[in-house]
């Protein structure tokens, strides 16, 4: 009985992974180490509950499973459940719970931790329109279909009409935003872009397919970013000098995979890293206040310096006659 359940689970995973091309009973049998006839008997037994469907006749029959309707088994220990619960709970507390999937996730995790815990959750109603948009973007990613989207950038009154290939989804590290990493058709070229999901207003799945990118190449590209932005050229060397009093706070977090810390003779700590788009670091640098000085690149130093001067004037700390700080 255990072997039968294992074969059924593996069969469903195979059909899910090969979507939308499907597999024949012979192909499935070769993968599972059983006969094609056994595969057909297994499918007849479980297809009503799993959504397996078939196309073709006789030896040309191929079996399909829409991953949109397939629920993978996911077993967690109590410790793992708590860690995932804390992550999802953070989304809820940050008001990022408009999608029904978030509501269902937090309830399922709470139920896994304690049967009565989920009953005490009072989560506001979710936004069905946002849920429909997100579901379509995920479906396009799964089926490798180009999407027509209306996307309204920050502080813009009108939306851009773009055709995109959704390649991956990624959260912003320093905020509660979620992004779709995609190729955007710009004339005869493809431009790599990261689009905030909340700013997608309309979605239409086309019938055209795009070529999926290797996941490892996408993740390697993200390693060069500070959060989510990908620059046009090579990564830029960022050098910051921190006050010694923030050393413990600076060391307790690995802020970037390429970071390097060096003690300087003047009592400062030098932090350096290679960042794809350094402007994405601005809010993080501001958070350190006067405990950090930007050394490189020059454009980042100039921008932080100009902001510091504006703040000094705002609080009456700038001596305009001597062009210095009081």
Question: How would you summarize what this structure contains?
Answer:
By secondary structure, the protein is of the alpha+beta class. The protein has helices at 2-17, 25-32, 36-50, 78-93, 100-113, 128-143, 215-223, 247-251, 282-286, 298-314, and strands at residues 52-55, 62-65, 145-151, 160-171, 178-186, 189-196, 200-209, 236-242, 260-263, 269-275, 292-296, 318-319, 324-325.
Key attributes of the depicted protein:
Arc Repressor Mutant, subunit A; 326 residues; 10 helices; SH3 type barrels; 4-stranded antiparallel β-sheet; 37% helix; alpha+beta; 5-stranded antiparallel β-sheet
Walk me through the topology.
Layout lengths: L1 H16 L7 H8 L3 H15 L1 E4 L6 E4 L12 H16 L6 H14 L14 H16 L1 E7 L8 E12 L6 E9 L2 E8 L3 E10 L5 H9 L12 E7 L4 H5 L8 E4 L5 E7 L6 H5 L5 E5 L1 H17 L3 E2 L4 E2 L1
Helix pairs in contact: 2-3, 4-5
Walkthrough of the structure:
- This protein is of the alpha+beta class.
- The chain folds into four domains: 2-69, Arc Repressor Mutant, subunit A; 78-126; 129-223, SH3 type barrels (Roll); 236-325, Alpha-Beta Plaits (2-Layer Sandwich), CATH 3.30.70.
- It contains ten helices and 13 strands.
- It has helices spanning 2-17, 25-32, 36-50, 78-93, 100-113, 128-143, 215-223, 247-251, 282-286, 298-314, and strands at residues 52-55, 62-65, 145-151, 160-171, 178-186, 189-196, 200-209, 236-242, 260-263, 269-275, 292-296, 318-319, 324-325.
- The strands form four sheets. A five-stranded antiparallel β-sheet has the order 6-5-4-3-7, with helices on one face. It has a four-stranded antiparallel β-sheet with strand order 9-10-8-11. Strands 1-2 form a two-stranded antiparallel sheet.
- Strand 12 and strand 13 form a beta hairpin.
- The longest helix has 17 residues, at 298-314.
- The protein is elongated and about 85 Å long.
- The mean pLDDT is 81.
């Amino acid at each position: 009985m255990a072997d039968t359940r294992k074969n059924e689970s593996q069969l469903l995973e195979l059909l899910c992974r090969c979507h939308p091309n499907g597999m024949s009973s012979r192909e499935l049998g070769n993968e599972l180490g059983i006969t094609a006839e056994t595969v057909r008997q297994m499918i007849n037994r479980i297809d009503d509950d799993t959504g397996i469907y078939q196309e073709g006749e006789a030896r040309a029959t191929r079996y399909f499973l829409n991953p949109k309707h397939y629920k993978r088994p996911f077993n967690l220990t109590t410790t793992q459940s708590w860690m995932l619960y804390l992550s999802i709970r953070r989304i809820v507390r940050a008001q990022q719970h408009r999608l029904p999937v978030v509501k269902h996730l937090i309830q399922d995790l709470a139920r896994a931790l304690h049967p009565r815990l989920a009953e005490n959750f009072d989560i506001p109603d979710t936004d069905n329109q946002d849920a429909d948009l997100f579901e379509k973007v995920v479906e396009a990613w799964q089926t490798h279909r180009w999407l027509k989207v209306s996307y309204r950038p920050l502080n813009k009154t009108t939306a851009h009409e773009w055709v995109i290939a959704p390649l991956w989804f990624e959260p912003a590290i320093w905020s509660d935003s979620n992004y779709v990493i995609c190729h955007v058709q710009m004339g005869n070229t493809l431009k790599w872009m990261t689009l905030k999901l909340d700013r997608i207003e309309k979605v239409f799945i086309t019938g055209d397919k795009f070529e999926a990118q290797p996941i490892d190449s996408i993740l390697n590209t993200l390693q060069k970013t500070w959060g989510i932005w990908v620059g046009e050229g090579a990564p830029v060397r960022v050098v910051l000098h921190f006050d010694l009093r923030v050393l413990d706070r600076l060391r307790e977090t690995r802020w970037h995979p390429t970071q390097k810390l060096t003690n300087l003779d003047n009592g400062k700590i030098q932090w350096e890293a290679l960042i794809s788009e350094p402007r994405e670091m601005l809010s993080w640098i501001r958070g350190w206040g006067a405990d950090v000085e930007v050394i490189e690149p020059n454009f980042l130093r100039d921008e932080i310096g100009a902001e510091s001067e504006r703040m000094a004037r705002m609080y009456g700390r700038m001596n305009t006659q001597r062009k210095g700080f009081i």
